[in-house]
């Protein structure tokens, strides 16, 4: 099946990009006859949030398991935190933290005991472990729950504790595999705030897998869409939205005379006489918007309002991963 690849590059001349926090080239993984990953390439900058989207079975969790050294790939190369995945897996593990789809906490222990247990597993001195546990309980607003058994905590509090345990080892890269699965909207947004703070305040790199498209839209600096083991699109949320047909500029006019005058200047526009609006196809980019405004200004036409409509990530996801829909591979880099 033929694919179309589009690359957009940019950046100041003469600058040298910092090495990525995570890089991968040609990652492959199969289980028997089932190909899970079929040549995945990644380059994730330090101090950013990268979201990997995909339907169930696309290979998201397998990607996390490989990059976090839990399983070995069948082919390809990867570097995490500057360490070769195959040659220095111990160094990789020392630099990362992993939070899976389900909270990996001991329900019989208290919140504080879970954190202290993690500190012991990280071989931290006892005083340092207690200091980090106290600081994390405060940061995650779990101080009141410190002495309570985890079995009595809400789902949102358990997820916060799970992430706090990941931070005991002070990782520079954190893998979050569908971290907000099963949480109510309020708890999900609380976790989003924590994730943003980790990046903004601590400079941590976040590798996020999720099926919540709003989550990727809200958090990610860059997003990749994984389907059938391949990256079928990558870019910022706005770049991905502009890939999908359906974007338009909506102009509203005071009367039908002005509407008709504007319609004559835009042959591909859809005219709605009842609503007194004109819909002009648009890729959502500034050059297109500027061109439309220039035409209106030169014609002396002044709309009552102008609204820019772009497809959302739902449209991107459904179009790029739809059953029976040819995949178009699009990569956008800066």
Keywords:
11 helices, disordered N terminus, 7-stranded mixed beta sheet, alpha/beta, 334 residues, Alpha-Beta Plaits, elongated, 15 strands, 4-stranded antiparallel beta sheet, Rossmann fold, disordered C terminus
Topology overview:
Elements: E1 22-31, E2 34-44, E3 49-53, H1 60-67, E4 75-80, E5 83-84, H2 89-95, E6 96-99, H3 111-121, H4 126-139, H5 155-167, E7 173-177, H6 185-202, E8 205-210, H7 213-219, E9 222-227, E10 230-235, H8 237-242, E11 248-252, H9 256-263, E12 270-272, E13 277-281, H10 286-298, E14 305-309, H11 313-321, E15 330-331
Parallel strand pairs: 3-8, 3-9, 6-7, 7-8, 10-15
Antiparallel strand pairs: 1-2, 1-4, 4-5, 9-10, 11-13, 11-14, 12-13
Helical segment tally? 11
CATH class of the largest domain: Alpha Beta
How much of the residues is beta strand, in percent?
A: 15-25%
Strand-pairing-aware structural class? alpha/beta
User: Could you please say which CATH topology of the largest domain applies here?
Assistant: Rossmann fold
What share of residues is helical?
25-40%
- Could you state the oligomeric state of the chains shown? single chain
Per DSSP E runs of 2 or more residues, the count of β-strands stands at 15
Return the CATH architecture of the largest domain: 3-Layer(aba) Sandwich
Order of helices and strands: EEEHEEHEHHHEHEHEEHEHEEHEHE
């Amino acid at each position: 099946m033929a694919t179309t690849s589009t690359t957009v590059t940019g950046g100041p001349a003469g600058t040298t990009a910092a090495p990525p926090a995570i890089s991968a080239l040609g990652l492959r993984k199969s289980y028997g006859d089932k190909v899970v990953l079929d040549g995945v390439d990644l380059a994730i900058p330090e101090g950013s949030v990268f979201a990997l989207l995909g339907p169930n079975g696309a290979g998201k969790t397998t990607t996390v398991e490989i990059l976090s050294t839990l399983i070995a790939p069948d082919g390809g190369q990867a570097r995490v935190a500057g360490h070769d995945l195959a040659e220095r897996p111990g160094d990789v593990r020392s630099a990362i933290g992993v939070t899976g789809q389900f909270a990996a906490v001991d329900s019989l222990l208290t919140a504080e005991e879970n954190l202290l247990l993690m500190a012991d597993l990280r071989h931290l001195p006892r005083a340092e472990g207690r200091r980090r546990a106290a600081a994390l309980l405060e940061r995650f607003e779990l101080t009141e729950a410190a002495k309570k058994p985890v079995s009595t905590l809400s789902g949102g509090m358990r997820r916060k504790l799970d992430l706090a345990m990941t931070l005991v080892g002070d990782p520079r890269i954190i893998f979050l595999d569908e971290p907000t699965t099963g949480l109510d909207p309020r708890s999900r947004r609380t976790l989003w705030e924590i994730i943003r703070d980790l990046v903004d305040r601590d400079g941590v790199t976040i590798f996020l897998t999720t099926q919540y498209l709003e989550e990727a839209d809200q958090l990610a600096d860059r997003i990749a869409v994984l389907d059938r083991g391949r990256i079928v699109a990558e870019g910022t949320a706005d770049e991905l939205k502009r890939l999908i047909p359906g974007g338009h500029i909506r102009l509203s006019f005071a009367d039908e005379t002005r509407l008709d005058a504007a319609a004559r200047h835009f042959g591909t526009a859809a005219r709605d006489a009842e609503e007194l609006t004109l819909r002009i196809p648009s890729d959502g980019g500034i050059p297109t918007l500027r061109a439309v405004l220039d035409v209106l200004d030169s014609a002396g036409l002044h709309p009552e309002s102008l609204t820019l409509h772009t497809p959302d990530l739902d449209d991107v996801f459904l179009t790029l991963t739809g059953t029976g829909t040819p995949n178009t591979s699009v990569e956008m880099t800066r």
